[in-house]
Here is the input.
Amino acid sequence: MYHTFHIPVLGLGYSIDTPLKVARYGISSVVSIVDDELTERMRKFHALAHHEDYVPIDKKTADSRALRITAYLNLLDQLVSRQFETLLNENAEPGADFHKYFELLPEDSALKLEYQEMLKINDRGSKKIALSVLRPKMKPGSIDVNIMSKVDKANYNSHDEYLGDDYTDALAAMRGFANSRLRAAVIISAGLNPRLYSYMEQCADFYPDPSGNLNKQIILKVSDFRSAMVQAKMLAKKGLWVTEFRVESGLNCGGHAFATEGFLLGPILEEFKEKRGLLMEELYAMYTAALAAKNRTAACKPLQRITAQGGIGTAEEHRFLLNYYQLDAAGWGSPFLLVPEATNVDDDTLTDLVHAEQSDFYLSNSSPLGVLFNSFRKNSMEQQRLERIAKGRPGSPCTKKFLCSNTEFTALPICTASREYQHAKLKELQRQDLPEAAYQLQFDAITEKICLCEGLCASVYLKNGMLKPKEQKAVSICPGPNLAYFSGKYSLKEMVQHIYGQTNLLASVNRPNLFINELNLYIDYLRKDLSLQVAGLSTKKTKYFGKFKEQLQQGIAYYKQLLPVLKQETSISINDVYNQLLLAEQQLETCKV
Here is the structure.
């Protein structure tokens, strides 16, 4: 790809059709395929909008989840291919999409330079020849998909009989992707799922064709080197190649936040940089041996990319990560929530995001998955949650059931955000006869959970006029804390030019370096976690917090050593960064373990 950034998955609905908006310009993006009801409704919406036949796939149809996902991905592939073909056949004139394709490329792109030379040609015949050389080099962005490996609910038929492992949510979603016509990648996030990896072994498109090409690629979203190595080895031993490790900051990101044990982005990327070659060789040996055992071969050595995402906010940070850590690209997620051309954010939520303060972005325990979740105080889902509590009816109607995992009160799993669960849990709490303060603490913990299945889709329905009668309008949005520094509604061109340094959307903003931001988030997280240990620290907890603090101390030491490089490669004030590291060090010392 010619761009050095991608747009990661944004909730369930915010990037559900982003490829239709940006892929023709060569920009890759990621679609969530967690919610097959959403993909089915979006297939109908876009099929009718583009005058395509639409045949609904009923929920009761056998293997409907996989079939719906396949049908939607095939439609995206068809529509993007058509868009790109139209773009290719346009005149190379300013204002046309053909021109915009090159305008959005980074200034040092060889393809952009070639295009600019073509524009200087006056002779019509020579220009036609130059265009015929240029057009075959143009490629659309990839339509990649995301599967959260741990969102893998078991499914049952109408008689409450288990449908079998192949029909759990993650495996059915993987089948939907594998059966599609896409030549793209699946990004596997949220940790290890051995059952999912075993199922992927059955999917032919993950293996190289006679020319060594992979129709379907595997990207692992990881939080540290060790988890990358463990998961990639497991896949390599099955003959499955990881084409990219997508390193994400543990806390300085959007969506669910998987806090590492104090491992910071800089040291993590340093380890990838140092061990990249050795990891590649070790994995390739396992991979080729596994292929041979299956009577398959790799005609050529596959590529393996390293990218990073989470909290990047300036062109300088983007360039530094790519140059110093030798990354292949970087992900820009939350800032694109402010780009209506690229994502689905309803008008009210977009206005709230534009005018948000730093304190409006916070980590919560609102996710039914039991994982920290990046929340936005002004989202309407939070207002709805409080209104339901005030009416004595906490919890949400559970219609989609994607996050059902609790069996405390029921034979079949239910969701901890559901009215059914919260009613039962609060009745149990009332029987405990706790002091008022202790009761309120537990009451708040129970009722904090919100329905992400509905909340993360509501915005796309509102924006596109797709909301059904009586369907809930409450929106949940989960931007990373970095979005606090962006305060505008931007065009796609403005955001891309900001990424590449052709403009600066944060010129008047006092924003610390991304490494400092993440470090402070981790110290705040540690301080908050320690404050919750009211009963004292067990031996296990003492060891955990001790290791956490030690890793942060090592991270600070690493960043101090990195200062000469930062001084050489960026324009930031090294004295400011050093003083911020000293302040962080002092704050960390107050965290007593």
